[in-house]
Amino acid sequence: MTVTYTRRYTGPLQAAILDWAGTTVDFGCLAPAGAFMEAFARSGVEITLEQARAPMGMAKWHHIQAITRMPAVADLWTSVHGAAPTDEDVNHLYDTFLPLQVAVVEKHADVIPGAVEAVAALRARGLKIGSTTGYPRPVMDVVQRVAAEQGYSPDVVVCAGETPTGRPGPSMALRCVIELSISPVEACVKIGDTVVDVEEGLNAGMWSIGLTDTGNEIGLPQAEWEALPADRRDALRRVAADRLARAGAHYVVRSLADAVPLLDLIDARLARGEKP
Predict the structure, then answer these.
(1) Annotated active-site residue in 26, 60, 128, 190
(2) Which residue, 95, 194, 233, 270, has fewest beta-carbon neighbours within 10 Å?
(3) Is the pTM of this model over 0.70?
């Protein structure tokens, strides 16, 4: 006799796994892009802001590697250096990038308006707060200090290079699950502003929420964003939302503060036995 049993978790969310730049700090995700562009420029290759932003959310070494593998960048590198870019070139670019990033990140580590209150609302629901980032630990040491001074300190911080693989793989998010002692994984929601944030959450078996206004997909500092005409903001928001939705986000909203009301919807879906 064969008995079939389908296990279903019907309890509430237990944890939120948050991204950093563009989600909780650094409105517009400004700090990394300029450092990438400067690192390439110092190697004689000028890259565009769009190229610098495209792989955002990945571990920074892999982010640089992804840029070098863009056909336009690879062709320009070959014309300048006489050979296609290699991983050794990526190592050199990363060594140039890291001190640049540490030097500028403090200027772009302010907590995004509404984020502290949103995290407080998450905690009031009983959620633990994990976080993952494409930044390496030396950069995060600076970011965490500034964020803590402004009222934001998650329970767990997992940095690039501290797990076998980075985004869009699940390793960093799952390390948060382990360190926070959460079970099952569908009791977690991943919230971030990039495509690889969304994919990280999905690959870890979590609910995934994408953010448009504050993050990399739009990529504007707060003052410039708020100065735009409403119709222009709406147009940029639609493009960003489409990218995140196509990546598989369960929900797409403007900011972390706007994500908080969605947790009731996710709790209701869990109560019905749904999984991400």
Answers:
(1) 60
(2) 95
(3) yes
